[in-house]
Write a sequence for this structure.
């Protein structure tokens, strides 16, 4: 099979049927499959996906027990693909399905492991654009991502990279972070980006903070090394500042009042302790959750025509 298409489904009861129908039309010349992963959607998406999977033999449907998050749903979908290439596309039609062929052509022409989409003008809400910019800036430093590469959710991944990604067993998958742990052979191509026609984005401030912390803490040693350098620099500054005070006091240049020294030392130490305890707590929390046996997803139901054969 040449191509697999993974679609994380959440609150898309009105769009998922037309999206699958359009994929069937534009990919008809290729051997392909579609993997729908319902991420605990509270609307009627599950029933719609079940009907779609029953209608098409090349569509398999997986329903998760609850809402685990987009990356977890994508990881689940990747684990059930069979294609030489796997495309990941959202369920809201902002990425035209026909653009998958552009990603595929680019991957084959450039022999790239991963091809990301990029947009001349993004049609997201300004808040989501801001969040994407912040996360992309962070990943440039924490993952070693090229500065000019935009980490979009619409992308194409080669089979051997998918096989490495799905080895992840923790509860906090970040697909782009896992990609850059496997390969640096990535490319990008310009594709259209359409305005949202139905519903609203599920991108919230809480999800942005969670993603930011996940990337910041879970996929690089850069944060702890940065705070180590900061702590060393602060200690050196305090040492020199204290030495200057001591010399000035011994030379009679000025009077150092005890309450000022105590207040400065207490405030500095308290702020530093809180800072490092917070970072240490994040690391310990991630380690605890990762080794506690919590899975990245739990399948409630899986349906595929191939399973009936």
């Amino acid at each position: 099979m040449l191509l697999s298409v993974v679609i994380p489904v959440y609150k898309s009861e009105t769009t998922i049927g037309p999206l699958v129908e359009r994929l069937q039309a534009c990919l008809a010349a290729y051997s392909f499959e579609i993997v729908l992963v319902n991420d605990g959607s509270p609307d009627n998406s599950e029933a719609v996906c079940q009907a779609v999977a029953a209608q098409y033999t090349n569509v398999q449907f997986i329903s998760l027990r609850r809402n685990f998050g987009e990356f977890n749903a994508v990881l689940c979908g990747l684990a059930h693909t069979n294609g030489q290439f796997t495309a990941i596309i959202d369920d809201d039609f902002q990425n035209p399905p026909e653009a998958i062929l552009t990603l595929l052509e680019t991957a084959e022409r450039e022999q790239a492991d991963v091809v990301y989409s990029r947009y001349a003008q993004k049609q997201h809400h300004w808040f989501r654009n801001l969040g994407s910019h912040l996360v992309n800036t962070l990943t440039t430093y924490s993952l070693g991502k090229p500065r000019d590469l935009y980490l979009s959710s619409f992308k194409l991944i080669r089979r051997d990279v998918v096989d490495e990604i799905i080895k992840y067993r923790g509860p906090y998958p970040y697909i782009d972070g896992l990609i850059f742990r496997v390969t640096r052979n990535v490319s990008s191509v310009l594709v259209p980006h359409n305005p949202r026609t139905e519903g609203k984005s599920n991108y919230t401030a809480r999800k942005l903070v969670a993603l930011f912390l996940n990337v910041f803490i879970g996929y690089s040693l850069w944060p702890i090394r940065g705070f180590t350098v900061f702590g060393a620099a602060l200690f050196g500054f305090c040492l020199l500042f204290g030495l200057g005070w001591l010399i000035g006091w011994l030379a009679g240049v000025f009077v150092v009042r005890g309450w000022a020294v105590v207040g400065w030392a207490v405030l500095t130490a308290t702020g530093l302790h809180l800072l490092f305890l917070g970072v240490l707590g994040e690391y310990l929390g991630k380690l605890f959750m990762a080794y506690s046996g919590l899975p990245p997803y739990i399948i409630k139901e899986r349906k595929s025509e191939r399973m009936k054969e």
Q: What stands out?
A: The CA atoms of residues 26 and 154 lie 17 Å apart. The chain has two domains: 3-219+294-308, 222-290. The radius of gyration is 25 Å. The mean pLDDT is 82.
